[in-house]
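RECORD TYPE: protein structure
NAME: RNA helicase
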Amino acid sequence: MLRSTTSQLCSKADHTSRSLLLHTSASFSAQLVRSGGRDGSRTRLTKDLNPGSRSTNLEVAPKSRGQDHPRGKHPSSSREPFTQDSRRSIRDDSRPKRNFARDSVPHADPEYVSTVKKEERNPSFRRWSRQKNEVNERTGRWKSEEEFHGVRQRDATKERGDKETMRDGNRYSDHHRDRQNDRPGPPRRVDTSSTSKFRNAIPIVSEFSETNTTTGSNELATTFTSPPLMPGILSCLTDVLGPRATPTPIQALSMKWLLNETGQVNPSSGWKQFLLASETGSGKSIAYLLPVLQNLKQSELDAASSPRSPLITLPQAGPRRALNPRALILAPTHELARQLAGFAKSLLHEVKLRVLCASRANVKSSKEHDATARQMVSQFNASAAEKSGEFEVKERSGFPVDVVVGTPMKLLEMVKGRGWDRKEMDVEPDVNELDSEHIGKPRRGRDKMIGFGKWRSQPEMGLANVEWVVVDEADVLFDPDFQETTRLLLADISLARGHPVPISPASALSPSPPSAATTPSTTSTPLDYPFNLILTSATIPTALATYLDTHHPKMMRIASPHLHHLPKTLQTEYVNWTGGNKLADIERRIRRVWAEDASMAGFNGIGDGGLSKILIFCNKSSKVDELGRYLEERNIKNIALSSTSDQRKRGSNHHLDGFLRVRETGAKESEGAPSTGSTETSPAVPDTSISLDPKSSPHVMITTSLLSRGLDFSPSIRHVFIVDEPRNMIDFLHRAGRAGRAGEKGKVVVFGKMKGRGSSKAKDVRKRVGSLVPH
Ligand SMILES: Nc1ncnc2c1ncn2[C@@H]1O[C@H](COP(=O)(O)OP(=O)(O)OP(=O)(O)O)[C@@H](O)[C@H]1O
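PREDICTED:
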């Protein structure tokens, strides 16, 4: 039985009476909070996007002791108060200097890294980086750490006694003030009315409470047949998930709110915006793929049955492009884009929508190798003639491809032409000429690559037909470092569809601090995109929450009951450094895991014949390489991957062979698909040869947070090792979440100095990790 409750955040004023009620309740709650309650008690929203709360109902809690603290003081009693001296000594000595800009990249996509490197050359950025390594005097936390305070300690929340302290109280304001003051450049403008609106108005629908699973409009699907899916999609889904699979909470919610009772997206109510938020490995990909694919196919069928209503309803902006997808799926890394594309394909063998993954951005591009979209189309045609028709291209249909998956930067390149972000262009280069021209001149970044910098390739993708945009890992793609690119792409789509939206300058894109601003800003304008927009994430940091409140106040927010918690099937274990060689400690632990597996081999068949695979997360690329070499010398074959690794440049996911989940259907069937030019159409997760011996086949993968986002790792990865102190709990949740997926068992092993002098940091991590464990 579905035990827990699932929360639905919906802010549409014209919704059902329940939405209305929630709206009213939320604002009522906010008023009570501001006034301190009517009867001396405080009202709290006991479930929001932070981990501290369990229930989803509005509750009136007795006045807690935490409230006795005068305003402005840290309400938690567990933290040692910081004296001026202790602060100074921490600032000066005890913390190693960190390069925040590079080291804290949670998702080091090459495009992102290059941006960061560019910024590092900028003196004001360096100054900002230095400042970020300081301690926030009021809260005693690292300022960089506070970046992600969207995930909080449950125990700390309990002590404080109310969640509003976090959202509305001093800590919230201080955090944002500090963050904003740390940034270089002019202070950001803020529309205080909209931010306070978000903080207070978090309407929550309790959908999964034990008493509330089957009645009336609260009924949620327990099978994939209600609302009905198309037979072709349903049968592929059954192939992929197995005949007994039932929707996960986020999938049931998504089917309920994105599809109507006939299984279609309601066409009459305009373009919609959704946020799907649930813990790692809970099936968010299917939660958005089902409604999107079903809708795309349905509208194709409708258009075919009534020729007077052609699928292309909007004028094509500019010259006609070879690719005119109807849906875009954005992901922060190429690895994830490839896996998502493979996953979507596996659901489409019968209904025959065409999915294309744009994922070769890591490969050097030269004129000869850079296939144009037309070449791509002809290759698709050839493959369609030979093969099962997965990439069947109807040349006259105007839709050689229905869905394109890629990073925002890669998609922008396809829309604007490669090199669009460079000033010089016009002429397509002669490689020799380029070389001679640049003799004696320092070449930087992309300019180092032949074919980049001086020229611009032809745009190959039009956006006028885009009806759906999915932003996977939305907290990354709307992170201040990424959102400029993401929003530029969204604005381009809007323009192409004839409804331009304002484009804000980069400096105005960051979330607005509620305390800092006085002037209303143009950036707080709600963005009504002329397409359906779905954001998904396993974590909603305050930055994203504030951004959504500011720009997407009407977005329907759908969250699962265990958001911001570790998956239930994931155990947590802490390992103490022995005080000697840390690499040797890690090796010992690996061998211990395998010894345990071997002893269990009689009882279960783990992984590929008894030994489980292990994923190790480090904070730095140099540590990845060092550990990789160390283990290799000791006959533990491993794959060490960081953002700069050569293996990543192949344009496929083969460097993850044996570690990503392989689904029997989709992946294997699409194995022979052509890979062309700037696109990747080969399977996301090819199967690998099986070897029982960790000396000959890699059983260990070492990486940074680069691979922590969204990737669906194989169930044979039963252990995730976190060998460096996690930078923040959001990063931790995503790393740990690579195991224990889809109800599989797993263990996250956190290394640290747990005893004696210098153990306070590890103990603090332990406490914070403990607060993420679901009850
Ligand atoms: N209803 C279901 N029943 C069984 N398995 C499922 C179900 N839905 C999804 N899965 C499987 O769960 C795994 C994780 O799914 P998915 O990658 O979509 O999770 P996610 O929520 O996006 O995770 P992350 O936050 O890490 O990106 C996949 O292997 C998927 O096939």
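COMMENT: The mean pLDDT is 65.
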